[in-house]
Design brief:
- The chain is of the alpha/beta class.
- It has two domains: 213 residues, 2-enoyl-CoA Hydratase, Chain A, domain 1, CATH 3.90.226.10; 48 residues, Lyase 2-enoyl-coa Hydratase, Chain  A, domain 2.
- The chain is 48% helix and 14% strand.
- A hairpin with a 2-residue loop joins strand 1 and strand 2.
- Helix 9 packs antiparallel against helix 10.
- The relative contact order is 0.12.
Length: 284
Amino acid sequence: MSYTCFDLSINKNVAHLVLNRPEKRNSMVPEFWSELPAIIRDIDNNSKARVIVISSTGPHFSAGMDLSAFSQNPELAAESSDAQKSNARLTHGATFIDTASYFQESFNAIEDCRIPVIAAIQGGCIGGGVDMVTACDMRYATEEAFICIQEINIGMTADVGTFPRLVKLIPEGIVRELAYTGRRMPASEAQQAGLINRVFADQDTMLAEVLNIAAVIASKAPLAVYGSKRMINYARDHSTADALDYISVWNTSMLQGQEMQEAMVANKEKRPGNFAELPKRRAR
């Protein structure tokens, strides 16, 4: 299947999703917001891979939302009647909330996915790009990469996921500085703050290393990786006591002795483990 904003390949249980509009700095046009969650959910729901890597093309990872693609409101078009224009103005707030929720769900799909999603960032990761990578499990970058909460520079507040996720990844004071100033945070600083896992000299080296990391994850028991992601997300949003209780209940039903034995035997015999794949999800 072909997509407007992405190229997709799956090899040895690793899905590689590549933003493919370098001439437009991989800006997020309307198709992006429907294609991304559809791809993520298809891979997850149908157990097509054990890990997803998101990378990009051209000089920049993503310039963020393409505002020009959303600037025209058909309800306020010149040919609309005065009554239609008045109604559109009155319902603008409700329409905006619905639209924002739609965009948020596109990145929620990354977090809700049962398998790890890894971002490989080159050049600028701007505006909506920050929203996207903060929803991923891990982030890697090239030396010249940077992140920028661009929204403040265009007179708006970031609303698609940056703040609720970023404040749980790096110190609050740094988030506030980035949000209030709109300055660029270079990859080296982002790594020091804990946002970026590792920095590489160039994109080719980064992609090779990130795909190697993905291959290692894909070699582990899918049920155990799924449980780990679920527990980490839960622990992030709940107290230690609640998280300890939840992991006990989770493992009561999900811990598989057969998978543990296979993992130990495979390690001893230095061979790939023969693990059960995640079951397909019911259609939602």
